[in-house]
Amino acid sequence: MHKKSVDILNWFLFKSYLILGNRVRFINQHVIPTDRPVIFVSNHQSMYDIPPLIYFLRKNHAKFISKIELTKGIPSISFNLKYGGAANINRKDTKQALAEISKLAQNMNQKNWSCIIFPEGTRTKTGKMKPFGIGGLATLFNEVPNALIVPIAISGSFNVVKYGSFPLNTFLKMTWEVLKPIEPKDKTVEALIQELEKEIKAHVVESKY
């Protein structure tokens, strides 16, 4: 019931974008397996990135790696992050953050869980990608070596909050594009991160703020 309620909630959340005349396109031309762990790696433009990811990737039931502040004060979302298996990290405490990610990695190995990580570390305000951090990705790649890695490029969602949290911007085109999955076999962590950053950046459509 928890899983179903999360899926339904996020369907309503991303459908609410349409009220403002905003267009949502989720492009996935690849078959993503559900019988092995999957690490979804995405750029991060705004909080509006998240509902389409949850809904359209619902078959994989991916857990988020999110900042610990989000586990309080947000109705339903905080509850799901706190009790749904997410890795809730304190960005000021590297030891705690890596321990949380390591705990998630163990569950991925044992339960075939998947996860979503935003390796830029924080949202961009301009749509221009920031360099990928290494720590979280390296922990996942090293501790879940059999995971399939799936990059996702998000474009346009940063413009929703052009004027701040209110008023929200209108009549935007937003795109979530699932890119070709990557098998990590025989690749170094550094090579994987460079490949992911280059591939996602090549598909992010940058526009003027």
Characterization of the model:
33% of the residues lie in helices and 17% in strands. The chain has 209 residues and is α/β, with parallel strands linked by helices. It has a single domain (2-49, 59-186), classed as Glycerol-3-phosphate (1)-acyltransferase. Strands 1-7-6-2-5-3-4 form a seven-stranded mixed β-sheet, with helices on both faces.
Mean pLDDT: 91
> Helices and strands: which structural class?
alpha/beta
Assign the CATH superfamily: Glycerol-3-phosphate (1)-acyltransferase
Query: How many structural domains in the coordinates?
Result: 1
* Low-pLDDT runs: none
Q: What is the topology, as strand order, of the major beta sheet?
A: 1-7-6-2-5-3-4
Instruction: Give the topology string: H per helix, E per strand.
Output: HEEHEHEHEHEEH
Keywords summarizing the entry:
alpha/beta, seven-stranded mixed sheet, Glycerol-3-phosphate (1)-acyltransferase, 209 residues
Question: Strands, helices and their partners?
Answer:
Layout: H1 2-15, E1 23-28, E2 38-42, H2 50-56, E3 63-67, H3 77-83, E4 87-89, H4 94-111, E5 115-117, H5 135-143, E6 148-155, E7 173-178, H6 189-203
Parallel strand pairs: 1-7, 2-5, 2-6, 3-4, 3-5
Antiparallel strand pairs: 6-7
Can you give me a brief rundown of this structure?
This protein is an alpha/beta fold and about 210 residues long. It has helices at about 1-15, 50-55, 75-85, 95-110, 135-145, 190-205; strands at about 25-30, 40, 65, 85-90, 115, 150-155, 175-180.
